[in-house]
Amino acid sequence: MLLPANNLEKLLHKAAAESDHAPAFYEELMESKVFVLGKAEDDSSGNFTLQDEQALILQHWERETDNSPVIPFFTSLQMLKQAIDTDEPYLELPTSALFQMTMGAPLVLNPNSEFGMEFEPEDIAGLLDTDLMTNAEHLLDEETEVLLGMPETPPETFIEVLSSFFAQHKNIEAAYLGTIQIPAQDDEEHLMVGIKGKGSMDKIIDTAIKKISVLEDIMEHNVVDFYVIDQDDQDISDFMVENITPFYVAKNKTLH
What we know:
Strands 1, 2, 3, 4, 5, 6 and 7 form a 7-stranded mixed beta sheet that branches. Strands 8, 9, 10, 11 and 12 form a 5-stranded mixed beta sheet that branches. By secondary structure, the chain is α+β, with helices and mostly antiparallel strands. Helix content is 30%, strand content 23%. α7 (202-213) links the parallel β10 (190-197) and β11 (224-228). Residues 130-140 have low confidence and may be disordered. The protein is elongated. It folds into 2 domains: 7-128, Trna Endonuclease, Chain: A, domain 1; 147-249, Beta Polymerase, domain 2, CATH 3.30.460.
């Protein structure tokens, strides 16, 4: 077995051994560059910057199960070379760029290895963005019925991922986890995350959504709503602060 060539492969090995490491792997994957068999259509060679209109020719392999086409890609050059018998042209490019240009096609990571992983189009769409976990603004009037509560089984991995992320931002003081249902809008109960802190939270929430989007397959709730304590709906803010113990509190911070 080849030793991991980079941090992405180290995280892949950990995720294969224990699913709790999957979020960290997916996060690293989306921030990394990967290798893919192919070339630029205009025969550009060496190091070059891919232009918006520049086309690439990517190799397609066949799945063993049904001979359907799939695009192989690799976490490192050593994994690519292990998978092929002859020298082939290859490209190194950001994972996000590869996913965007191949939207709708299935991909397979590290084929012909013990650490292979298939990505269906819906998996790729979820990693690029997600329709289920969004930062939507809710405008509730006084007559709207809102059912607030707490999850029966707190999602541990979800809490760990957000806690680790929030710890990187000094302006976040605490975070709360509850549930919300608005019968007039949706019969489904949503998770709701309340963030208490200073300043604008828009960018932090946008990044948090991307981090938890990879957890959708293991989540009991399909939708997560974010609220900023004392900036968004005051009734929801009051409910969280008065009834829910925060799952994250910044170090050296005492809540009153």
